[in-house]
Amino acid sequence: MTFEAPKVSYSGKIREIPLGREGNTVTVGGESCYPFHLFEGEMPYPPKIAMEVYDSEPEDWPDTALEPFADVIKDPAAWARKCVDTYGAEMIALQLASTDPNDKDISADEAAGITKAVSDVVDVPMIVLGCGNVDKDTDVLKAVCEVCEGRDLIIGPVAEGNYRAIGATAIGYKHTVLASTPIDINLAKQLNILLGNLNVPDEKIIIDPSTGALGYGLEYCYSVMERIRMAALIQEDERLQFPIISNLAREVWKTKEVKVPESEAPLLGDVKKRGILMEALTAQCVLLAGADILVMRHPEAISLVKESIKDLMTGK
Amino acid sequence: MGLSGIEIFKKLPKTNCGKCGVPTCLAFAMKLAAGQAELDACPDLSDDVKEELGEASAPPVRTVVIGTGDRAVKLGGETVLFRHEKRFESPPAFTLLLSDNMDEAEITVRLKKFNNTVYERVGVVLRPELVAIKAVSGDASKFGALVEKVCSATDAGLILMNEDADALSQAARSCSNRKPLLYAADKDNFESMGNLAKELSCPLAVKGSNLEELSEVSEKLMAMGLKDLVLDSGARSARQAFEDQIIIRRSALLKKFKPFGFPTIVFPCEMADNLMKETMIACNMTAKYGGVIVMSEIEGYSVFPLLLASMNIFTDPQRPMAVDQKIYEIGAADESSPVLITGNFSLTYFIVSGEVDASRVPSYLLIKDTEGLSVLTAWAAGKFAADTIATFVKKSGIEEKVKHRKLIIPGYLATISGELEEELPDWKILIGPREASHLPAYLKQWSM
Ligand code: B12
Ligand code: SF4
Predict the structure, then answer these.
(1) Which pLDDT score, from 0 to 100, does residue A1 have?
(2) What is the domain-level CATH number for residue A173?
(3) What mean pLDDT is predicted for residues B33-51?
């Protein structure tokens, strides 16, 4: 028996999507193989990491996650600057968590104002995420689209319940949309079809198939991403040939295991390193499943993941 | 499975006696071909046919066992490339590496940590499984002494790593009853290694400097009659290891390439200079087909996330783990204890019951059947709606156990509290915290 490496031949390709304002764009997608399967295809644009910024001071973060941002935590614009200047963020993801009606419920205008302030101080591509409440997100994201005209934002989550209103506004102001569906390949495809019917251009769509944290439902998300990639690359399902985003940090950093101190759970080891690895491993898993953009928090988790991407892309 | 249903059918007794649990031999053959039945279910097969079909119906990646008793570790047995196709069989064995030039005291500390590192999560025990003992000193007696020390310190399975065949043979004989993995046969020493492994009936690692060479050595060992092999492709970089793992698994599954039809061993410990990075590489190997994953250190902050990743990747994609619908008493609950409700997804149950337990406030936890779905998923799927919760609460018998009428619901279900109060007019609905981790603080405020 002589050995011959079995290779997969891919008939499909992921769309290349440039994000951000002209002159400062970052391109994602373009893969013609499964993640990092570089022996049989190409990944012209390595996955990118967007650093999280919150619209107001977070209340339930563990110290280990707060520490790197302690000096800017009350000022989203300064926070974003720090991400770019100190940590070299390739993208920013502004989480408009305070708009949640079950939380601080800040108004759409206020949220748009914060977004504008952040977008004015950084040049990198910027993702703006609503709280996940369908109706509130409609108001908030519409306002955001308007005040940030010309900024080429990436806005979401755009869901089945609000895609028309947000999609139409996004087209008007030329922003990119994050098409969000709850862990289901058919729903993901369906929403992309609907967005297409609405005339959202294909180069303005990123898929967000939902994310759970390591140990908290990640397996489902992992499989849905793998299946989306298979459908796109092997079955040439062209409504799934879009880059994938994973909004993972907020899931990871609310779990118990990133918070419980070593003194209470000695077997779990150093709480800081543990939190960093919980985030970095969640990221690593979704990368292997097909994510192109990761929304992440801890600078050290980010550098671990960046190094890992580099090793998988270029090391031998 | 190499044979089609029809090919298998030809070898069956064709009596359609039904003893195998399906009405006809043909139906049984089809199930065998699909990997949904065991050969042993048919009592009327001749030994010859059994062997022939057994060989053909064996999984394309052979199951190899390292160690004995309740610490035996099963590797391989895999039949698919992607977890959504069918459950992956054998989670990776995270392994502690010890060298014979390490400081004695250090070894004692590491072994102790290794032994203590056991977690329980959703009813499953998670732990690093194996200890690899590596000869670095070049001194056979030091190696032997370390093997002895490890044997007396732990029941875990062992990997003996020594390039000196005599030293390895000596050490292997001293503990062959524990079925250690012998590391490693290569293109030069495969004969003596092969013979040793055969004689002691121990599993044997095969090492090549690349896939080509690995396949050649593996084939030679198979020709010698060795069955339990573990493959090391020689890759010592993150990218090469990733690529090799994929090609090995694909060769076994898609091409039925026998020399690669075995579990693998990988060495993140040799691919990074710090444990954080090593953990990242081990994570890649967990998702993509690593069998034995050798780590330079076992530290909770690294191995716990890895075990979670392994658990996630290796759970059954078709069936969420669920617990029974009933009233769970946590602590010495009495008629004035708080009553909480949640769904029967085992992850949800274990997290919530763990927190209630940690609060030290004796409580009743009502578990409603949500078909194994988490709180929000169940709610979105209509399995945790106010009317069905109400019916369950009334029937559960909780009204006889407590004299108050206060029900704590998950914070994420705040939106249904009004409706639930209508459905359960005698009860007051309290909205608990969203995250279970806030339950201890919440419960400490409890007053009837
Ligand atoms: C994995 C997952 C799935 C898996 C199922 C996993 C399972 N066994 O439940 C699958 C893929 C099958 C799935 C399907 C669906 N899902 Co789903 N899913 C998730 C995901 C990613 C994680 C869920 C999880 O495992 N959480 C971990 C467990 C432990 O959490 P939990 O049960 O809520 O428990 C926590 C708290 O609630 C609290 N708690 C629990 N009990 C109690 C009790 C008390 C008293 C208190 C105080 C606290 C408390 O403690 C726990 C830890 O803090 C979430 C998104 C997310 N990030 O959460 C979406 C999510 C829940 N799914 C969602 C949806 C819509 C669906 C679908 C309807 C979509 C569809 N495809 O049709 C289906 C429905 C299923 C069906 N029709 O059969 C939505 C729900 C939206 C909403 N707000 O209503 C979510 C939030 C995703 C989203 N953002 O859109 N899903
Ligand atoms: S038990 Fe054996 S002989 Fe009887 S029906 Fe099943 S396969 Fe056929």
Answers:
(1) 62
(2) 3.20.20.20
(3) 84
Find the ligand nearest to B21 CA: 2
Count of structural domains, chain A = 1
Contact between B279 and A308 using a beta-carbon 8 Å cutoff: no
Nearest residue of A to residue B114 by CA position?
Answer: A267
In chain A, what residues touch B315 (CB-CB under 8 Å)? Answer: 219
| Residue A183, pLDDT above cutoff 60 | yes
Task: Give residues 269 to 308 of A whose Cβ lies within 8 Å of B.
Answer: 269-271, 273-274, 276-278, 280-281, 284-285, 288-289, 300, 304-305, 307-308
Q: Above 80 in pLDDT, residue B24?
A: yes
pTM: 0.91
Reported as a pLDDT band with limits 50, 70 and 90, residue B2 is: low
Domain annotation covers residue A204 = yes
Task: Write out chain A residues lying below 8 Å of B250, CB-based.
Answer: 5-6
Q: Which residue of B lies nearest to A254 if distances are taken between CA atoms?
A: B435
Tell me: pLDDT of A253 over 90.
yes
Kindly state whether residue A57 falls inside one of the protein's structural domains: yes
Print the domain residue range for A249: 18-306
CB atoms B302 and A266 under 8 Å: no
* 3-state DSSP of chain A: CCCCCCCCCCCCCCCEEEECCCCCCEEEECCCCCCCCCCCCCCCCCCEEEEEEECCCCCCCCHHHHHHHCCCCCCHHHHHHHHHHCCCCCEEEEECHHHCCCCCCCCHHHHHHHHHHHHHHCCCCEEEECCCCHHHHHHHHHHHHHHCCCCCCEEEEECCCCHHHHHHHHHHHCCEEEEECCCCHHHHHHHHHHHHHCCCCHHHEEEECCCCECCEEHHHHHHHHHHHHHHHHCCCCHHHCCCEEEECHHHHCCCHHHCCCCCCCHHHCCHHHHHHHHHHHHHHHHHHHCCCEEEECCHHHHHHHHHHHHHHHHCC
- CB atoms B250 and A6 under 8 Å: yes
Q: How far is the CA of B414 from the centre of ligand 1 (A)?
A: 15
Would residue A253 count as lying in a domain?
Answer: yes
Asked whether residue A199 is domain-assigned, the answer is: yes
Chain A nearest CA to B440, separation (Å): 12
Per-residue pLDDT tens over the stretch A255-298: 989 999 999 999 999 999 999 999 999 999 999 999 999 999 99
Encode pLDDT of A63-77 as tens digits. Answer: 999 999 999 999 999
Q: Tell me the range of A228-232, B344-348, B434-438 where mean pLDDT is highest.
A: A228-232
